[in-house]
Amino acid sequence: MPNLKKPTLDKDLDKLSYMEEAAGSLGRGLIAPGIALVFIVLCALGAGASMSGAPGTVIIVAAAAIGAYMALNIGANDVANNVGPAVGSRAMTLLTALIIAAVFESAGALIAGGDVVSTISKGIIDPASVADANVFMAAMMAALVSSALWINLATWIGAPVSTTHSIVGGVMGAGIAAAGFSAVNWATMGGIAASWVISPFLGGLIAAAFLAFIKTFIIYQEDKIAAARKWVPVLIGVMSGTFASYLALKGLKKIVKIDMPMSLVLGVVVGLAVWAIVRPLIRRQSEGLENRNQSLRILFSVPLVCSAALLSFAHGANDVANAVGPLAAIVHTAELGDVAAKVSIPLWVMAVGAFGISFGLLLFGPRLIEMVGQQITKLNPMRAYCVSLSAAITVIVASGFGLPVSSTHIAVGAVFGVGFFREWYTERSKRRLDYVNKMQANGNVVRPVRNREEQARRHLVRRAHFMTIIAAWVVTVPAAAVLSAGLYFVMVKLIA
């Protein structure tokens, strides 16, 4: 018999090939962390160059590195809420979503990001209790590090969490460690705790209501295209007006101050104008389309991409302060030696936040984008449209009532709302059953309604993801607070 054993040289070459393949795979996994590390180092060096000779340069350099790390984590976790539904519905590819979000996040932060921020985030800590400059800087650095570490951990386990709640927890924990429990404004913290429930519930309710409207007046009509010609322009007008109010209220604070009544008037005007413009466009786009759901998805795709871009712009303008607010406070305190209630944000500090969020999204964002857009529940352009519209409307409603809400909780809550509504509707809707029977009687092939046993076995919302995300939301503030309190004692020793 022939000798089937490989020669020793061939075995050694195979081993080398396996080692090379393993090394290449490992190297690819280190590319993103390596680029992130380079960005953090460049931010620190840039801060040192811009503040050369100024008092407290060493502290400012360290704070710039920490702020850059925080911005990277915000981009990796928080931005997924804006583009995840559009990607999950296949209205745009992951690469397109990353590019759009990175551009509009940076534009929102640099063009419309707030130029003045509160140094004691959202009035959580009494400024008089941390009046000593060293104590204040240690508290802010501890808050930044703890919130960044918590968001990093949440991203690693695949849980979209509120970056605002993370920094709030960090500030609270450091404040308690520095000045005791009496330094905390517990009424404010109570409002933030209430938002854990209010944000996702309200977002889910509004998203479910819009999906019910679309199903009733478009999807389950005999002539879907005629119904779409009537109602899709109305929905696009509502979206446009809502985003006009949203951007006026939340995204353009640096450029112009607009109050709630004026923002609502602006929204109505824009909504009516867009409705009048898109009516003939939708009519032309719908010509020749078949009377099926796939045709409806085409009509919703472009508005959904636009909503993702607008949400990213507003997020960059509104949430960049979570990364650069404490950093700006540290820079001000290190330079002047006093603790101010509000400080201006230098341009280089804003750039750290803007580009850090974009780099974090590009390097680490796909994981959470897939989670929000694909793994919680199945989305199509119509369902994703409801999620995006709900996010903007909920923020406006909550702002009108003065409720502190989280954009993350709203967007993810809207995804849950859409999924749970689909479970309820598929199981109980008499309208859907009548529609299926009628279409089948006419010879059309329609997916049958599942029975209760099959529906219970095939939930439309993945319960494991639901429980993981809810648990992460509940522990965000206390986890960041405990971590920050421990880090405060380390920071105060280093600064002193």
Q: Quick recap of the structure?
A:
By secondary structure, this protein is mainly alpha-helical.
Describe the protein.
The chain is an all-alpha fold. The protein is built from 17 helices and two strands. The longest helix is centred in the first third of the chain and has 43 residues. The chain is elongated, with a radius of gyration of 25 Å. The N and C termini lie far apart (80 Å). About 1% of the residues have low confidence.
The overall pLDDT average reads 82
Question: What is the share of helical residues?
Answer: over 70%
Instruction: Please report the number of helical segments.
Output: 17
Distance between the termini: 80 Å
- Series of H and E elements: HHHHEHHHHHHHEHHHHHH
Outline the biggest β-sheet: 2 strands, antiparallel
Low-confidence stretches: 453-457
Beta content: under 5%
Count of extended strands: 2
Notable characteristics:
about 500 residues; mainly alpha; two-stranded antiparallel ribbon; 17 helices; 2 strands; about 0% strand; elongated
Secondary-structure map:
Blueprint: H1 8-50, H2 57-77, H3 80-88, H4 94-112, E1 116-118, H5 133-157, H6 163-179, H7 186-219, H8 224-251, H9 260-286, H10 293-319, H11 321-336, E2 342-344, H12 347-375, H13 381-400, H14 407-428, H15 430-441, H16 452-457, H17 463-495
Antiparallel strand pairs: 1-2
